[in-house]
Amino acid sequence: MHLDLKGKRAFISGSSQGIGAASAIEISLLGASVTIVGRNKDKLDKTYSMLDKGQGQEHNILVVDYSKKGELKSEIDKLLAQGYTYDILINNMGGPKAGAGYKAEIEEFEEAFYNHVINNQVLAQSFIPQMKEKGWGRIINIISTSVKEPIKGLGVSNTIRGAVGNWSKTLANEMGKYNITVNNVLPGSTLTARHEEVVKGKSEKTGKSMEEIEWEMKELIPMKRFATPEEVANAIAFLASPASSYINGINIPVDGGRVHSL
């Protein structure tokens, strides 16, 4: 199986921790140079220290706040002016806060749409011309199983994740002829800071202990456990590789079988 990514460069957002960091490490092990992206320089430095550097890779760090309008585009333009070119784009952003959809403020929807959809569009428009010129590209969006089955108590997230899913499918249809694939990875319950935040929120709302909440969540998963970030990263790295060349426009759940639908 052809998994070698030597000579490729990946841009991985949200790579200071969790799934993003695990993906950056795995993709570096396949030989790619990686731009790791996030708001926290100290956490990015930690991820950087774990990247494979023994295959001639040249990694770099980009500190940027996606919520500040215009900042991402400005920073990307600087990278492009320095001669950086990208073959792989991995869009990975933490989800909006939990809560019922009808209770959410309009600003919550607007902020989430900007962070997840508009910023994805900024990155795609910045890197696709390079990918088209090379005749090769991978765009991978880390979203949620909620694009298949909305998750109770995540009203804004369910809405925005669905928007990203349809944005992705549209882009896949448009880019396939250029040998640029666009796919989504849908993590289930994964041992990340976001998972802890969700569990803590449910605990505070219900009065149940975090251990009890986690037990109830595991009971919904056929494998009876949560994923590790590395298990999700394995699927992401495969989609980024040459081996996934004819996989385009799909959703891949990495959820231990939790989603009931096919």
What's the topology here?
Blueprint: E1 9-12, H1 18-29, E2 33-38, H2 41-50, E3 60-63, H3 71-81, E4 88-92, H4 106-134, E5 137-142, H5 155-175, E6 180-187, H6 193-206, H7 210-219, H8 229-240, E7 251-254
Parallel strand pairs: 1-2, 1-4, 2-3, 4-5, 5-6, 6-7
Question: How would you explain this protein's 3D organization?
Answer:
The protein has 262 residues and is of the alpha/beta class. It contains eight helices and seven strands; from the N terminus they run βαβαβαβαβαβαααβ. It has helices spanning 18-29, 41-50, 71-81, 106-134, 155-175, 193-206, 210-219, 229-240; strands spanning 9-12, 33-38, 60-63, 88-92, 137-142, 180-187, 251-254. It has a seven-stranded parallel β-sheet with strand order 3-2-1-4-5-6-7, with helices on both faces. α1 (18-29) links the parallel β1 (9-12) and β2. The mean pLDDT is 95.
Question: Main β-sheet, in a few words?
Answer: 7 strands, parallel
Residue runs with pLDDT of under 50 for 5 or more positions: none
Terminal CA distance reads 26 Å
> What's the mean pLDDT score?
95
